[in-house]
Design brief:
Helix 1 packs antiparallel against helix 11. The chain has 725 residues and is an alpha+beta fold. The chain is globular, with a radius of gyration of 25 Å. It has 11 helices and 45 strands. Helices cover 15% and strands 34% of the residues. Among the domains are: 95 residues; 249 residues, Rossmann fold.
Amino acid sequence: MDSPDLPRQFARTRRFSLGVPRGFTVSPDGERVLFVRSAAGDDPVGRLWLYEDGAERMLADPAALGGSGPVPEAERVRRERAREASQGVVAFATDHHARVAAFTLGGALWLVETDGGPPRRIRTAGPAVDPRPSPDGTLVAYVCGGALRVVGADGSGDRALAEPEGAEVTYGLADHVAAESMGRQRGFWWSPGSDALLVARVDASPVRVWWLSDPARPEQAPRAVRYPAAGTANAVTSLHILRVDGTRTSVVTPERASEHHGAGEWTDDAFDYVPTVRWDAHGPLVTLQTRDQRSVHVLEVDPETGGTRALDHLSDPAWLELMPGTPLRLDSGRLVRLGEAPGRTRGLRVGDAGTPRGLQVREVLAATGERLWFTASTEPTEVHVWSFEHADDQAGDLRQLSEGPGVHTAAVGGDTVVLDSRTPDGQTVTVLRGGEPTGRIAVYAEEPVVSPRPRHLTLGERELRSALYLPSWHEPGAGKLPVLLCPYAGPGIQLVVHARGWWTVVAQWFAEQGYAVLITDGRGTPGRGDDWSRAVHGDQLTPVLDDQVDALHAAAERFPDLDLERVGIRGWSFGGYLAVGAVLHRPDVFHAAVAGAAPSDLRLYDTHWKERYLGHPDVRTAAYENCSLVAHAHRLRRPLMLVHGMSDDNVLPVHLLRLSSALLAAGRPHSVLPLSGASHLVSQEDQAANLLRCELDFLSKHLSPSAGPAQAPARSSTRAQVPSP
């Protein structure tokens, strides 16, 4: 009997992301929670919702607001950087009190008030991008055609505060590197008094132009992409105070790190990057990072003169990892910044106090008064919500809010905490007031037709965190199982966590087809301190691949049914890079590979992400050569399938084409599967569903998994609803 159609469900639900509430904004008094969610687990249209007084109420339904135009190009790019797979209302912003919310539909600007009344369309000069109400709710700032504009909440007085001086200049948008590699999606910030904005001006003219086309649609002109590849010029970002009255002041920032900048084989102390910007009650707060990423300066800005004063300086001999949410200031003005705790744990410093040894801080979420809210781990496979309040001693008042295995995060306002928890059983969103649960926000995600059954393991001398998935029908000792590794294993992402994610469902689906599936987070992945993360400095392939091999062998010692004579590996993005590297460099271990969106020549990936680990390609040429897949294409001895989206503007298709050409030139047979119209995130339903089946067919051809017993009939795709109280 056929197994349940997981590939179709996986694609139809956009990796089980539909129907999941997200983007929570909590009002400062804790009374209102706004969020985005679609109406069902297979509904791709996002709607804006309000949770208030223990009940949910829809604020905006795109279907009721009539038609809208196409998504503006700047908004399409923003969504691609955010890996946004849904439609309708995908993002919003509110005034300070969360009484007025702004969003766009096809470039049309809409406002809705939380105290009642239907959404109102606000006429704009053209397609609007990233609208944000002023703190007092009387104005809305937005980007249109690269200009930063404001319009009254009543629709009056639309005007430009800054217009681009050239075709490659924009005001109010994040450049590619900021959005893709630094996590900064925004380009303007309101003053608390609603009388001015701090705005990023981006000049992309120095950045090399790449041309991206869809070969399946030759009638369409190629699209120009300004992509800053490693070793090439970045966009130039400057900051400006734009006042509502039309006056303007430029922010004067230093060009280079002035002190304590470490030496090395490659050193560049120019401030190329603007990772974070805030404007709080104490004024604008800006961070600058050097091109070599060894120094970060924290500056406060005088909004009247544009002058700056250094508040803090951080440096590291390898690179300085950015901490999401930092720096920021508490009500007292105390600066919250990244701080290294004993044992090279990533911690926080609040004034003269800090988080304790062994608590690995992941992200700062919010500050209420003098209390700071953040996520952190004591065990890398779990993430919990914590709070910290400064005290005269070093300990301070540290509390853990979330409980139980899982990956937890939160949004905070007043004494309300919206606790978003992903656990082994799924996802829940709990609203707490004063620390006590008072209700839940519904999660409409579909229940997967395949239930993950991971065995969490700690393997080898390096205590590698791994998860092993075996077929539900397999009996120990009944026969050997081919092994399939499904890692990401790169910076910024963990797959081995005590929570159900789409990748755990896919891993179990492959297991049900007759594989033992192993996922391992090795050196270079987050959650285990700076020494662990920086073990890949200068070499992003060897230590990562060694950890996968060590975990595989250690798992086989504990589970003799794992067949080391039939080992495959599959992955996407960095995981795809690792899959190719595995069959090139360790054909004694790996017998087949499927690699999606693999960056094959690391000189062609962006500056901030790649120079962090390998340095400048003109200086550290050997590092790039050693980590290149193209340079080692002649080593291929095993079956390899390469998959790539032809519209991918993160890992561009040039990576696929150069690697395939090098393999062909070396006489190495391989398979190529181009995905027409697909970006880095494959979202077209037929493509996403059938891609999993194509991978399975390829791997089964070369690894010959044993057929299991007849599978149970597919369960219906019901919606798992967590009702509001």
